[in-house]
Amino acid sequence: MSFEIKIYNPKDLSNRSYINIKINGKWVKEYNGNKIGIDIKPNLASTFRKRSALLTQLEYSFKKAIDSGIYPVKEKKPDHSTEYVLQQALKKKQTLNLNHNYLRNLKYIHDAFIHFLSDEERKSPISLIKKSRIQEFLLRYNSSGTYYMNKRRDLGVLFSQVANDFEISVPSIKSTDKLKSKPDLHKIYTDIQLKQVLEFLESKHPNLYLCCLISYGCLLRPHQEVRMLTKSHFHNNYSEIHLSAKENKSGRHRIVYIPDYVKEVLFTLVEDIEDKDNIFSKGTIPFNEAYFSTAWTRMWQEMSKINIVEDNHTIYSFRHTSAVKIYKQTKDLHLLQQLMGHSDMVVTLKYLRGLGVHDMENLKQVIPKL
Questions:
Q1: What was the pLDDT predicted at 357?
Q2: By the 8 A CB rule, do 286 and 273 touch?
Q3: Which end of the chain has fewer CB atoms surrounding its CB within 10 Å, N or C?
Q4: CATH code of the domain covering residue 144
């Protein structure tokens, strides 16, 4: 490599000195040895003679650096490898105040996708990942439409984060195949079943009984919103539950009315605990996420033996039963949306449609007659 170096060293020490390097037809000024990792700083010299000696050392050091290929310093290209950008996207999501289950799902799909890729694909730019490979990965989860679409959505979240953060082109997850999702069926209870199940749980599992009672009477989601309740969530003499935007799925502050039959049970169970204590564990640490699911599975098996529950009766069935009763009584979608804590009216409509709820009176008007 051809180069030329000139020393500029004015006798007036108030004027800075430097070496001027012409390399690849371009002149570059270097005032010290920082770029090549050498502690030579001529402009800190106290005399002209000392500065001259340091400039000579600096010139020699840069000649060696050029000969060995250390200089000019090559600009490091940004790492856009698939493995790196997806890892950074996941880290970004983990720094945000997001639902624990949501973050867990993102980590799962991240780890599974990285493990699925070959070494070459992991090290290559993400823009080179073929749609066929993404489709091949997603088909591992095609045991049901819902399962497949959930994994497809989670992977799409990470790819979108990469596109936003790195401003690079990424494969479109939306271009992969869709599978029709079937909504989870949480069969509603009849009035007789509701009474029988609640009476059974009250005597066999008080915590599960309270969870189901709150889900039915206050329409809270059992596994997160109900399970995480502390004494401090209750206000106005146990007539209201106040949830912050972070504590409910809609992401909005929510105040929930507590009916008297829930209030009576609550008061006796939480009267002696501290404000920060969880109403189920009676301590500051709540039960784990699977607590109510595990309890319900056991209780359902016992109730099934005495024929007071049916297949697809779940904890969520209490919330759904309440929603159907409210809608049939009021026909007011806006009111139901508020009570359910849905972020949008469309969510409420889909919810009712998924439960098979229709306005039968309107349907009767359009059925053709003979």
A1: 57
A2: no
A3: C
A4: 1.10.150
